[in-house]
């Protein structure tokens, strides 16, 4: 039978705080509380919203971006840490599932990360954007397949991708194959102009149709004062306007409420989960409409690491404990060499 459950979702489009350390976190908590007052059980915020998206990198050459980049390092988020604790408390207090984009600092590298907090405050997923886009490659490191996961939450099975990861069909398919029910999409907003918003709309509506899931998409917003603070040159400010498409899409590819394309606001919509079965009855990309014997996805979900230790050393074994194994290997190599020499003499 089709599921009769309904989830009230919120997509948040607000401006970050570019001046006050921690100010954007306060805005996130306030917006989550406002959405809770409207009954929202699932809330999505924009890409790398905390502390802010690195807009400077889009309009400034790398040679002139060092100061802003270091400033971003200073205020980026360690996971776990005070920011994740604050958001976890908000999720628990509001009984909400919260999806938040952050700049994650892991020692000497920043990452574009997406965090999902369940309604009890548990952080159930931290994932990193697998390939930063264009100018972003000077700002963030690359993520790995460990975060390409769909997680069980109070509202259902949730997956997430950031921005142009939605142009990677295999990344999307990895979540589809895990039967995501609600997809959290995040874009920076206030960039590139109307063409960015138009392309974004096509992308999220297509994913909803192809995956047979709901898509809740959040984009950021910059005020004119903030744009002026990022660039003193009017000719460059045009690149920091437009490009907003905060929206909530059904599995049939329809807007459930009119999208928000400018200004601040919170979209609210009820997700009728029965629509997932209605769509997949006709076309299930990872079920009856798939041909896995012809086409399938191979995914490596192991976390990447710059250092690997042998099992014996990792278990605390000493170098002396490894000596017998090394001696046996040397003896075997010498015996092989002797056999090869004997064969050559016989052949001669």
TrEMBL record:
Ranges of Basic and acidic residues composition bias in the record: 328-337
InterPro entries hit by this protein: C-N_Hydrolase, C-N_Hydrolase_sf, Nitrilase, Nitrilase/CN_hydratase_CS, Nitrilases_CHs
Domain CN hydrolase: 7-273
EC number per UniProt: 3.5.5.7
Region (Disordered): 317-348
Enzyme class, UniProt record, top EC level: hydrolase
Pfam (any one): CN_hydrolase
GO molecular function, one term: aliphatic nitrilase activity
Gene3D superfamilies linked: Carbon-nitrogen hydrolase
SUPFAM superfamilies: Carbon-nitrogen hydrolase (SSF56317)
Assigned keywords, A-Z: Hydrolase
PROSITE patterns named among the record's database cross-references: CN_HYDROLASE, NITRIL_CHT_2, PIPLC_X_DOMAIN
The keyword Hydrolase belongs to this UniProt entry's keyword annotation: yes
Similarity comment text for this entry: Belongs to the carbon-nitrogen hydrolase superfamily. Nitrilase family.
Protein name: Aliphatic nitrilase
């Amino acid at each position: 039978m089709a599921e009769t459950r309904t989830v009230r979702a919120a997509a948040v489009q607000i401006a970050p705080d570019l001046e006050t350390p921690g100010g954007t976190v306060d805005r996130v908590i306030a917006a989550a509380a406002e959405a809770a007052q409207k009954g929202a059980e699932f809330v999505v915020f924009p890409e790398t919203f905390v502390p802010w998206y690195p807009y400077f990198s889009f309009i400034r050459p790398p040679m002139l971006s060092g100061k802003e980049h270091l400033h971003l390092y200073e205020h980026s988020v360690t996971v776990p840490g005070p920011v994740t604790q604050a958001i976890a408390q908000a999720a628990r207090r509001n009984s909400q599932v919260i999806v938040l984009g952050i700049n994650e600092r892991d020692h000497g590298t920043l990452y574009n990360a997406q965090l999902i907090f369940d309604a009890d405050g548990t952080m159930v997923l931290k994932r990193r954007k697998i390939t930063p886009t264009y100018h972003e490659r000077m700002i963030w490191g690359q993520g790995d397949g460990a975060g390409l996961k769909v997680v069980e939450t109070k509202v259902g099975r949730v997956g997430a991708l950031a921005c142009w990861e939605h142009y990677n069909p295999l990344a999307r398919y990895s979540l589809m194959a895990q039967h995501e029910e609600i997809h959290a999409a995040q874009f920076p907003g206030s960039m590139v102009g109307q063409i960015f918003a138009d392309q974004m709309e096509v992308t999220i509506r297509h994913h909803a149709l192809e995956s047979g899931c709901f898509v809740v998409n959040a984009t950021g917003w910059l005020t004119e004062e903030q744009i002026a603070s990022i660039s003193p040159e009017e000719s460059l400010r045009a690149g920091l306007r437009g490009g907003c498409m905060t929206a909530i899409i059904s599995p049939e590819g329809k807007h459930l409420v009119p999208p928000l394309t400018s200004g601040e606001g919170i979209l609210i919509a009820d997700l009728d989960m029965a629509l997932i079965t209605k769509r997949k009855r006709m076309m299930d990309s990872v079920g009856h409409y798939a041909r896995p014997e012809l086409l399938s996805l191979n995914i490596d979900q192991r976390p990447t690491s710059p250092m690997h230790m042998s099992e014996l050393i990792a278990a605390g074994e000493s170098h002396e404990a490894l000596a017998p194994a090394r001696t046996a290997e040397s003896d075997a190599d010498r015996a092989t060499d002797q056999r090869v020499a004997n064969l050559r003499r016989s052949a001669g």
